[in-house]
């Protein structure tokens, strides 16, 4: 139907109007569907009480926008990267800086801590992902031991180590994701399927550990099999770029944050969206999301400088956290769930608990 | 993703209300006082239904429908789904296999059923079943290994049942499939016309999923420090790192919450180094420790350096798979054959099938028994419940924030004699370093207390 020319009496305007009214109908029906969805089942459980979370640490030291951060498995150290090319490793508990690396590029959009705690990976506008082993010799120049692992044809948007220090998964503005062997820099598998920049990825916490999810500017969230490179599931309900994807702790679902100012929950077994977290008063995009340890809370950082805390089951907002003075670019819960860290374009990072 | 629409008046429709009505009748028929007389494990249909006053002909007709929809099944000629007005025997189908609970029948389940039959009858399936089997094999090829494995597991489990029970279960299962996958030429009794899209089917399919989220969140809530706090206290709030010290990898006695968490899932047990150690101790007592060691060795292959894969795989073969190997693992012959074939050209995933087999073996067998063992119960009884420490109120007595040794200090490959190599694990607590607590010089008004 879309391939035929205009029929009699039709203009592009009338067709546009028709498509808009169909969209509205879809929204209506979809909203009705949600009446029997997750939050109905969750009606019987207790609502969450008064929510008190405060900034417990403020990490100052970056000279420019903080773009990304990651926790170390020791539950207190973090790595953060910024627009000016600096990558800093902190003991967030004492707020001491332990290592600093200056990347040869600006806009370091991705950084990750190795599972062993002995290295960090980062990259950005250099189109690469590099691994820096962390040396405690203060005199040693970390940049000297740098290992170039991944090579994309556009900016690196996100990176993550798999279960060991030996493999890295990356996503890029070139529309692909890729799995790399750290020692050799060899490409082990590439993942094609997005039709625009891929902005985020997350590894599934599953028994067999073989899948991951990615989200991009094509509004799609794709689930991939790491072994075969195949796209096994795809979800497209967002109305704008997906900035961040994160698995629910059990691995059966994942949440997304998007420029359309909503966060959504997608169930992998039901193969569809099961919840939308949105409010009329939230107009700016969600840049980053993460779950509390039990999966009951979803922390989302927004471009309007705030962090909203959502009740995952009931679909309601539990709290709004003010404090940052510019966009919140990254939000990550600590490995033992005791706190979460937010990074912002106001050059600081905050630990909340 | 499909979009469903509500019916015109916005009212939710129940698909096949006849099922509820039938089930109500079936239940009342089985009422010990007012229902039909049963004999041992057999049932003679004499009067159906027992309460309504209807003609015999109508009663027989209703009974026919019960058989067609699988609520009652004949024993003598199972493929003939009719109700005879003589003294042939029938049995009530177990609610597990009722249409309202298990409809539509899943392809995966049918594949597993056929696979079981195929194994039991050593390939001698009936013609139409053979065709279905082959068609399924093509259609869901990507999960076929799982299908076969599940079939084997179910057969193994059923062998451990009493003969009488086993026969009944087999009859029930067969009856279910005769209704839901009728042989060609017989009437498809559950044919219900073109699919009508209502929201109700969605609710039926999804309410299980939604309950899952609630269950999961409730189960993990006591372990979620942001939701429910943590004992003795949250280090970020009170500046006291007892919580981290008490939950470190090499602590002498773990906390109760931590030990409880191992019972949530096999993965939780394995993800905790201490849990893994405890489990290994248990397996050693059962003389099946090689399973866990094998699994760990496979993990090492999967996540390790590409260059080292061939030598690692070779080690695994020598230790665990070769005939007469010192720590030989018990894998079924088909998987073993496939693995050995793959070993000729070793790659990162060559041990996946064998690893999965051993993983599920441990998960279904050793893990549940470990949770019931004295070893686990003792540990749970001895485990600590920390006392709560409150945040100090006086700003002048703010606790010093102690630094900790960086994980980058040392990497230690945990290598115990005879056991397989694990991936690099940092044991921070093994490092005995005297670090002076770092005193942060802060202006009074910067103090965290005042934020």
Biggest beta-sheet profile of chain B: 4 strands, antiparallel
Largest interface: A-B, 86 and 71 residues
Question: In total, how many beta strands of chain A?
Answer: 28
Number of helices of chain A: 2
Average residue-wise pLDDT of chain A:
91
Number of strands of chain B: 4
Cα(first) to Cα(last) distance of chain A is 55 Å
- Major sheet size, sense and barrel closure of chain A: 4 strands, antiparallel
Distance between the termini of chain B: 48 Å
Number of helices of chain B: 18
The residue ranges of chain A in which pLDDT falls below 50 over 5 or more consecutive positions are none
- What's the assembly state of these chains? heterodimer
Biggest sheet strand order of chain B reads 1-2-4-3
- Structural class computed from helices and strand pairing of chain A: mainly beta
Strand order of the largest sheet of chain A: 1-28-27-26
- Segments of chain B where pLDDT lies below 50 for 5+ residues? 1-15, 41-53, 197-206, 411-451
Residues in helices of chain B, as a percent range? 40-55%
Shape of chain B: globular
InterPro entries (chain A): G-protein_beta_1-5 (IPR016346), WD40/YVTN_repeat-like_dom_sf (IPR015943), WD40_G-protein_beta-like (IPR001632), WD40_PAC1 (IPR020472), WD40_repeat_CS (IPR019775), WD40_repeat_dom_sf (IPR036322), WD40_rpt (IPR001680)
Family (chain A): Belongs to the WD repeat G protein beta family.
Protein name (chain A): Guanine nucleotide binding protein (G protein), beta 5b
Pfam families (chain A): WD40_Gbeta (PF25391)
